[in-house]
C-alpha cells in the first residue's frame, strides 16, 4: 500500500469515527482507543469487534459514502469469512454471503458452485447484503435488504418501479424522447422537451448507478419483448398506460463501447405524447396557409410535399391535412404509410414500414387497394419518388415529406431522385417548408419598441418590415426563466412557407431552371412569402423572439432578409380577395 493510499485510508477511518460519534454509536474516548486499520478491509471488522451497533454502523457508512441503505442488519459477528481475492470481494457473516454486486453473475456463480460442493468449507445459506465493494483501496457500503426477499425479486421490483416512474415523468413533461446513455460511472438520463435535449431534472431520475444500469435496460428490453444479449442493435414497441393516457413508444437499443465493456444505449421515442391530431386551424398557421392547404387537400389528384428538418413537425402537419380531408370527404379511401405510425386516426388506414416492407413496397401494394388519398411518410429513394409521382398522375392525391432546406428545394431534390421535369411540373401542386420555433414565456418577457435594444436595432433597422422604430417585439427580460418555462421559452410554434406551383413556375420546372432561381422569381413576383416573413408575423404577435427565429431559420435566409429591398416585392402582404382568386385558379 502506498503512502497516499495509507493516508486516504486513515482519513476515511477518521471520517467514519466522527460520523459514529455524531450518531452516539461511539464515545470520543473509545474512538481514540481504536487501533488504526492497516487496510480498508479491516475497518468494518474492527468496528464490529469494538461492539458498535450494526444498524448505526451501516447507517454511518451509508451516509458517509452516499449510498442507499435498505433494512440493513448484520446479526452475528462470530463467523467472519472474507474473500482472499481482492478482485472479487465478498464476505460471509452468520451464514449470509455478502457481495458488492448481487447482479454480477460472474462474481456470484462460482460462489454458488462452491456452496453446493460438500467438500468446500464455505458455508452460507443466503445471498444477502451488499457490503464492501472493494477491500483493497476503497470502502463502500452500498445496500442491504431484508433477508427474506430474494435478489431476483428485489432487483426486478426495483427496476420496474424505476422504469414506471421514468416513463410517467417523461409523459408528464411532454417529452418527445428519452435518452438513457451509458457512461463509465453509470447511466445518465436525458429528456427532449420542446426540441431541446436536457438532463432530467427530477431527483432520483437523473442517473442510474452503474450496478443497476443493466437492470433498467433488461426491464426495458423485457417490455418490448426482445432478447437482451446486447450484441446487436434492436428496436421494439411498448404501450405504456400512465394515470391519464396511453402512450405508445418506440425503443431503439444500440450496443456501445465504454472502455472494455459493451453497454446498451437506449433511446425511447414517445409517439403520441402531444395532444393528438390537431385541426388545421390549430397548428398556428397563418389564415392564408390554412386556406391554401385546405384547398390543396380537397383536390382529387396531385402531389403535396411538406419539407423541413427532422423534428420540425412535418408529420403533424400532414396528419392535420389528412384529418381535414377525412372530415370533409368521409367517403374517400385514405391511407398512410409511416415509419413509425405516430397517431392513429379513425377512417385512415395506416401501414407501418418494417424490415419486411419498405415505403416503396407498401405504396405499390396500396395502389391496388383503390385509394383516393395516400400519405407517404417520407420519400427517401428514387423508387418511392417514382411511385409517388405515378400515383399522383393516375388520379390519387399524394401527400409526402422530404428533407430540404426550403420549399423550392424540393424541386431539385426530386430531380436528383430521377423524376422527369415535365411530369413533376404537371403534378407537383405545392411544397411547404416548416420549422418549430420556441415560444417566448409571457412571464419572463415583455413587448418593447425594437429601438430599445441596441443590439436588435443595429441588426434589423434596415430590414423593411422591422425598420419602423415603433414596432414592438418581445424581449426576454428574465433569462433564467421561471417555473413555467425553460430559460424564458416554453412550447413551440410552427413557422411555415408555401410554394404554390403556378403556371410560370411550371414552365421553369420544365425548362430545368434551378430551384433557388424559381424561388427568387416567385418572391419578386410577390406570390411567395418565405419562412422569415411568417416568422416576423409571429414576432410582431409576441409569440416568439427575433433570436429564437434566427436560431431556427437558415442563416442564409436571414441574410436574405437584409437584402430584401433588392427583391422589390410588396411588403407586409396580407390575405386578400386577390388570394382567393388565386386559389380558385389553382383549384380549377
Ligand atoms: Zn412564470
Ligand atoms: Zn418564464
From TrEMBL:
Q: Which PROSITE patterns match?
A: T2SP_E
GO MF annotation list: ATP binding; ATP hydrolysis activity
SUPFAM superfamilies given in the database record? P-loop containing nucleoside triphosphate hydrolases
What top-level branch of life does the organism fall under? Bacteria
Q: Does the keyword ATP-binding apply?
A: yes
| Family matches, as Pfam families | T2SSE
Keywords attached to this Swiss-Prot or TrEMBL record, sorted alphabetically, are: ATP-binding, Nucleotide-binding
Write down the Gene3D superfamilies for this protein, in alphabetical order.
Answer: 3.30.450.90, P-loop containing nucleotide triphosphate hydrolases
Q: Where is the Bacterial type II secretion system protein E domain?
A: 367-381
Q: Which residues form a coiled coil?
A: none
Q: Name one GO cellular component term.
A: plasma membrane
Q: Which family does it belong to?
A: Belongs to the GSP E family.
The name this protein goes by in its record: Bacterial type II secretion system protein E domain-containing protein
Organismal lineage: Bacteria, Pseudomonadati, Pseudomonadota, Gammaproteobacteria, Pseudomonadales
